[in-house]
Amino acid sequence: MSSYFPGGSGLGWQRSLDRIKRKLETLVASVWRVTLSRWFFVKRARNADVECATMRFVAANTSIPVPRVRFQFRWDDRTYIVMDRVRGRPLADIWRELPEAAKEIVVVRLAEYMKQLRSIPPPPGTSICSVLGGPVYCWRLNQWEPLTGPFRDEEHMNLQLRTLQPVDSCAEVVKTAHAKTHPLVFTHNDFVTRNIMAQEDGTITGIIDWECAGWFPAHWEYCKTMNWGNWHPQNREWYPWVHRFLPAYELEAEADRALLQQFFAPEFHAP
């Protein structure tokens, strides 16, 4: 019996379907570019339920400009979020060229946004977790399986950072820092210049990429911003401005650098 598909076999069927799929994807992409992409942005999401819930949570509880979520969908075993497109450019692309007056506008506004975010009271019994109460997405906490936690408390999270090693095996600064506890705050957890959209006059048009956000100890955003998120040399010009919008935790940041040197990032989950 002849077949419409080449070869008349299962392999031929698959190859033909793959070609049709590629052509369909190309067609959809072309139509998207010349029509809806002016108003909407589609993000392939690794943790879509949490990211959508987080953006809605932030929009409902602060005046921080976040993308408006329209809906999410699955295609070819991948999940995507459709959201309003944020105007402006990543701050990473324009920071060096901004005049000092515009930079001042940026950091003053970021300080206001961060204060709002950290002023949201955690629900009773909240652990270190996502806005939905489950795992958090953080490469610093687990480099191979970044969806990790939730953590019962700060001591549990510190154990993860030490890759399950006793604190006595670490530098003195780690021992001192890990003996402290900090209040729980809601934070972005990836607050770097590529996730801040702005215009050349210093107007912030949006804070994007909320997949890592959640309830964390108050020092954590500062540690990540200084030690993990801005590792590229071009971001070092950003360092002197960070303390203007984030409370500085120098001891904790130094301890985190010592842990990165000793263990780098964890590769498994603390039980």
Automatic annotation (TrEMBL):
Keywords: Kinase, Transferase. Residues 37-233 form the Aminoglycoside phosphotransferase domain. InterPro entries: AGP_Transferase, Aminoglycoside_PTrfase, Kinase-like_dom_sf. It comes from the Eukaryota. CDD domains: APH_ChoK_like. The keyword Transferase applies. GO terms for molecular function: kinase activity. The keyword DNA-binding does not apply. PANTHER family: AMINOGLYCOSIDE PHOSPHOTRANSFERASE DOMAIN-CONTAINING PROTEIN, AMINOGLYCOSIDE PHOSPHOTRANSFERASE-RELATED-RELATED. This is Kinase-like protein.
